[in-house]
Write a structure and sequence with these properties.
By secondary structure, the protein is of the alpha/beta class. The protein has six helices and 14 strands. 21% of the residues lie in helices and 32% in strands. The strands form three sheets. It has a six-stranded mixed beta sheet with strand order 1-2-3-4-5-6, covered by helices on one side. A six-stranded mixed beta sheet has the order 7-8-9-10-13-14. It has a two-stranded antiparallel ribbon with strand order 11-12.
Length: 211
């Protein structure tokens, strides 16, 4: 990892959601991606590292990626909760973000991000890539200088996210995968919402689906 930046993965919740922490070891500034559950555990890990949490980034609004958002925000009130602007309906409607019985949840988003927008957090510039398909407002966060893509549930190791849930679309997912697999450098590390890390080069094996 370039300079003093580290990325850690915490796998949480009933279906193994990957929550990522990017930390600048020098400044202790950090951001969290998709705190999906086990808030007490996540907060204890952040506290142990003495992080200065600047933001919580959400790739989409499904319950298994957001259940710990409110608790993390309470523990770190200065951290902004950020999400793609087209995912607003998912964030505001508990009937859309539900999963297992009793897993309906509500949470507040501080700022919605436009596709193509760039944000700077913990010394890293992230570009917001709109990747609809798994949900209508799914996004990936691309840190070009680090060669890393926080992919949410759009792209997995040798697979891709479901498109049969509310607001999902197989047509949109094909287009999103085509864009990722044909425009990003092959050496980019893909950090998915579930499962193991992969690369753009490795995932070009599913390009037939994308087309």
């Amino acid at each position: 990892m370039a300079d003093t930046k580290t990325i850690e993965c915490f796998t949480v919740g009933p279906i193994g959601t990957n929550c990522y922490l990017l930390l600048d070891e020098e400044t202790k500034e950090a951001f969290l991606v998709d705190p999906g559950d086990e808030a007490e555990y996540l907060i204890s890990e952040l506290n142990r590292r003495e992080v200065r949490l600047r933001a919580v980034l959400l790739t989409h609004g499904h319950f298994d990626h957001v259940l710990a958002v409110s608790a993390v925000k309470e523990a770190y009130p200065g951290a902004e909760v950020l999400m793609g602007e087209r995912e607003r309906p998912m964030a505001e409607n508990e009937d859309l973000n539900s999963g297992f019985p009793g897993q309906h949840c509500s949470y507040a988003v501080d700022r919605y991000l436009a596709g193509g927008e760039e944000i700077s957090l913990a010394g890293v510039t992230l570009r917001v890539l709109e990747t609809p398909g798994h949900t209508a407002g799914s996004v990936c966060y691309y840190a070009e200088e680090l060669g890393v893509l926080f992919a949410g549930d759009t792209l997995f190791y040798h697979s891709y996210g479901r498109y049969d849930l509310p607001t999902g679309s197989v047509r949109d997912l094909r287009e999103s995968l085509t864009t990722l697999l044909t425009t990003l450098p092959e050496e980019v590390q893909v950090l998915p919402g579930h499962g193991r890390t992969t690369t753009i080069k490795e995932e070009r094996i599913i390009e037939g689906f994308a087309r």
